[in-house]
User: Fold Translesion error-prone DNA polymerase V autoproteolytic subunit from Adhaeribacter rhizoryzae.
Amino acid sequence: MRIERKELVNANHVTIILSDPAAEKQFPLFVNLVRAGFPSPAEDYSEERISLTQYLNGNPTATFYVRVEGDSMEDFGLFEGDLLVIDRSLEVRSGDIILANIDNEFTVKKLEISGDGVRLVAGNKKYKSIQITTNLEMLVWGVVRGLARRFRK
Assistant:
């Protein structure tokens, strides 16, 4: 897949990448589901075309990508090297995994809003949650909409 990209920010190990959806090629998508369990007998199938950028991007003008570094989100299924799709147009809700900037440092964490306040939760017991207080400046850059992961290079 060829995606034109432009690196915008490289601060604190977060690289933000924009893509050009118009430059992306569409690939075949087999409409039958592929079983992850015991294989079934071969069936007739039909084929559509899919653009991964269109599939993952809800709002192309508000979408960008970041690459995960570190192990703080592994229990939530986000691993080092994963490419996260961040959508700035989504309304932020408790339970969302977000890209946040806290005191000029980027982090990806799960947002929890409760009667006790706001906190950012790591997906690894080695790391403490971050309680958002008036002493911290936090900006939500967007919500994680999806991810792309390579198994082989």
